[in-house]
Amino acid sequence: MKPGVSSDTFPPRSHEAKRISVVEAAASVFCREGYAGANIDLIAAEAGVSRQTVYNHHGDKEKLFMAVVRDLTERCNAGIFATIATFPDQPADVESDLVAFAVRMNRNCICNRDGRFLRKLIQAEGERYPELFAEWREQGPGRTWSALAARFARLAYAGHLSIDDPDVAARQFLALVNAELQITFMLGGMPTEEEVLRSATNGVRTFLAAFGRRKAAPARQAALAHA
Amino acid sequence: MKPGVSSDTFPPRSHEAKRISVVEAAASVFCREGYAGANIDLIAAEAGVSRQTVYNHHGDKEKLFMAVVRDLTERCNAGIFATIATFPDQPADVESDLVAFAVRMNRNCICNRDGRFLRKLIQAEGERYPELFAEWREQGPGRTWSALAARFARLAYAGHLSIDDPDVAARQFLALVNAELQITFMLGGMPTEEEVLRSATNGVRTFLAAFGRRKAAPARQAALAHA
DNA sequence: ACAAATTTAGACAGGCTTGTCCAATTCGTC
DNA sequence: GACGAATTGGACAAGCCTGTCTAAATTTGT
C-alpha cells in the first residue's frame, strides 16, 4: 500500500509467497508433532525462511496455528464444493457413476494433503480451540452435508433412488464408501488408489442395495433411459 | 518379592493402586495435551502422587506413554470381545436386536472413556510409534473385525441375512451405525444416549435394507419363527 | 512396636523453546 | 545505480520441562 502502486498488489511479491510457504510448512509440522511439539525453528527451516520472518508474518505460535487451520478449512471446503458440483445428476449408470464420484471425493478432498492435515488437527486440537472448530463445523460438514443431501434428493426425485431422509442417506453414503479406509485414516496414512476404489465399490453396492430402485435388467434400462 | 511372602502379592497394596492411578491420570493428560504437551508434574498431581513416584514406577515419559497405550488397548479389546459375545445369534427380531447390539457396542467400547482415549492417542501419536500401534492394529481391529464377521456369517447361514462377504458386511455395519456420530468423535466429544440410539437405528435400517432377507410380513414371520 | 520399604517435597542441573532485539545483508523498485 | 523495505543470522533473557538426588516422613508387614 505504501511502497508503491505499480505492479500487482501492495506487497512486492515474494512477501506473500513466503507467507504461504510458512503456513504450509507449519501445517506439516503441526500435524507431525502436535501443537505443543511443533518447533518454530523447524517450521522456519522447512519453509526456507528465518525464524524472525515467521514472527514478522504471524505474530506468535497461536496466531500461526489459527492461520493454518483457517487456510486448510478454506481450501478443503472449496475442494469439497467443487467435487460435489460433479455429482452425477443424470447418471448413465448409477453404480459406476456413484463409484466414480466417491473416488473423486476421496482423492480430491479426503485423502489429499489438506484433507488429512485438517482432519488430524481437528482431532488433536479441536477441544483446545472451541470457537475455531465450531466455525469449521458450520462451514464444513454443516454446509457440505446439506449440499450432498440435496443432490441425493434430486437423484431420488428423478427416480434413480428411493430415499426417505436425504440427510441420513448422504451421511451414510460417506460412511459406506469410506468404511474400509477407517484404519488407514486413523493412523494418518494414505490409502492406495486400489484401496480407495475397492472401498468405494463395496460401499456404493451396499448403498444401492439399500436405496436403489429395484430393476429387472439394470444395464438395458439404463441404456434405454439415456440413449 | 523380597519383603514378605504372606498376604496376597509381593508389592504391599497401594503400590499397585498408585501404579494404576498414575496410568489413568497419564491417559487423561496425554489425551488432553498430546504427548509433547503432557506434563509429568500435572500427571502426578492428577494421580495424587508425587512426581518421584511416577518416575519410580514407570522410568520415563516414553515408557509411561507405552504403558498407557498397552493398558488402554488391553481393556478396550476385552470390552469389545465381551460385547461381541452378546451378538444376537438367534434374533427374535433382527432389527431391534441389531440396534440393541450396536448401542451396546457404542456405549461399552467406542464412546466410553477408554475407547475415546485410545482412539485419540492412536490418531495423534500413531505415526510416532509404529511397532506399538501395529501391535494394536493386529490385536484390535484385526481380531475384532474377524470375530464380528463370523457372527454375521452365522446369521446369514441361519437365513436371517443375505451376505456375500461377511468381512465387508461387518465393516459396513460398524460404519453405518456410527455414521451420524463422526463429527462428535472427531472433536473428542461424547454423544448423548439419544444420538447413539438414532444413529444405530438409522444405520441398522439401511444395513437391513441392503442385507436383510426380503419378508412379506416381517413381524408375523419373526413371531412364528421363534414362538 | 519395630524394621524395611515406599513415598514425599524440594532443590537442582541441563536442555530446549519462545519471543525479542539488532546489525548486516539481500531484494525489489524506481 | 540508489533507495527503502524486507530478510537474515545470531545473540539473548526468561520460562518451562525432564530426570536425578537427598533427607525426612509415612506406610507396611511381622
Radius of gyration based on Cα positions of chain A? 22 Å
Overall geometric form of chain A:
elongated
CATH top level class name of the largest domain in chain A = Mainly Alpha
* Distance separating the two termini of chain A: 58 Å
CATH superfamily of the largest domain in chain A: Tetracycline Repressor, domain 2
Uncertain regions spanning at least 5 consecutive residues of chain A: 1-12, 216-227
β-sheet strand percentage of chain A: under 5%
Which bin fits the share of residues in helices of chain A? over 70%
* Oligomer class: homodimer
Tally of individual helices of chain A: 11
The CATH architecture term of the largest domain in chain A is: Orthogonal Bundle
Tally of separate domains of chain A: 2
Instruction: Using a beta-carbon cutoff below 8 angstroms, give the protein chain pair with the largest interface and the number of residues from each chain.
Output: A-B, 38 and 38 residues
Can you summarize the main beta sheet of chain A?
Answer: none
Query: What structural category characterises the helix and strand content of chain A?
Result: mainly alpha
Mean pLDDT of chain A: 89
